Each structure stands twice: as structure tokens, then as C-alpha cells.
């Protein structure tokens, strides 16, 4: 089930046990972690995730209702006027490249997959504008395929917790796959993501309210 080409590293039993305790504590603190992008279909989640690059989920959620009304399907999106499309997504940042990728992605979906979002990493990551992180978001949340999501929050939290020694997203994904039971890949990585988004912040981590403070080996943590 490993989806990275890198070779896995052995996982010490104590690290695996600590990871289990950490995920259990995060489950108590946030019992139902879910992707915060709003969507009704796999296509909408794919679009929203592409738009979320270098942008907050909150901003994307403000943009997508009008976008989905205007372009409800890949077939409609592939025929979009670039300038009109850019206007609808301008506030998400990097709107020119995002518009280009989304229109090209829509065309690829129609030409290769009859307008349907594919259900494999290989097919998804071959689409314009879709990397492993975006593909894992769609696989894990739209299709319930066990997937480890690695974004900037997961990368930071996994490093601070000693779950990985790498800063490379593909390597971090593999390290977490080796550490977390496959049944918890999607849920576990989403827990780490939200913990990084709301508690284990980059500049001013909220150590005083951290539910896993006692399990955290990070030298930079601040005692309550």
C-alpha cells in the first residue's frame, strides 16, 4: 500500500507507541477532524484543493459557491473564458496559474476519464495542477482510500514530534505511512494537519493549550 518510491525506514516500537498515544489524545481533543474545504462532489473537492494552495480554506470557501454555480462540471469548466474564471478566483492568490491549471485539468478529465475524477494516485497526479498532496486529499476524503496528507502543517508537526527526520513531503508521507496504521492514515494525517493549523503554529505555538505537550520532544516547545 506504500505509494512512495522511497524505501521505508524501520520504526522503533517506542516511537510507534508514542504515535499511538498522540493520535489518541488528538482524537479526544478534536473527535471528528474533517477537511475544512466545503464540497459536495469529488470534482468540487479537487477544485477547492487546487485553489487552497497558498490560500486559507476559509477564503476558498468564500469563492467556490459562485465558481461552482458558474462551472458545475469539468465539461463547463474546460470551456471557461480565462478572464472570467480568473475574476472569480482572484482573491485566492496566484489566480492566473490556478485558472490555467483548473481549465487544463478539466479538459484532461473530460478527455481521459469521461469527466469523472479518477480514484488512483497515478491517474490523479498526472492531471495538470495536481500533486501528491492534492491527490491524497481527494482520495482520502472523497473516495475513502487510505491516504496520508502532507501539507505545511503536517510537515511542521511531524518534524517537531520526531515522526520524521525529513523535510521532503514524499519522504514524510512514507515515514507516516510506516508509523500510522493504514486504517488511520487519512484520519491521523488530518489530525496532525488541524493540530498544526490551530495549536502547533509555526511562529507562536500554543503550548499552553496543547493536548500532547507531555508527548512532544521538540526542543523549542514552551512550558505552560
Q: Could you estimate the helical fraction of the residues in percent?
A: 40-55%
Order of helices and strands: HHHHHHHHHHH
Low-confidence segments, given as residue ranges, are: none
**What's the average pLDDT?**
94
Instruction: Please state the structural category.
Output: mainly alpha
Terminus-to-terminus distance: 40 Å
Query: Strand count, sense and closure of the main sheet?
Result: none
Tally of helical runs: 11
Broad shape: elongated
Strand content: under 5%
Radius of gyration: 18 Å
Total beta-strand segments: 0
Short description:
By secondary structure, the chain is mostly helical.
Protein described:
By secondary structure, this protein is mainly α. The chain is built from 11 helices and no strands. α2 packs antiparallel against α8. 38% of the residues are buried.
List the helices and strands and how they pair.
Layout: H1 13-29, H2 42-51, H3 57-70, H4 74-78, H5 82-89, H6 95-113, H7 121-125, H8 132-142, H9 152-160, H10 169-179, H11 185-198
Features:
224 residues; mainly alpha; 55% helix
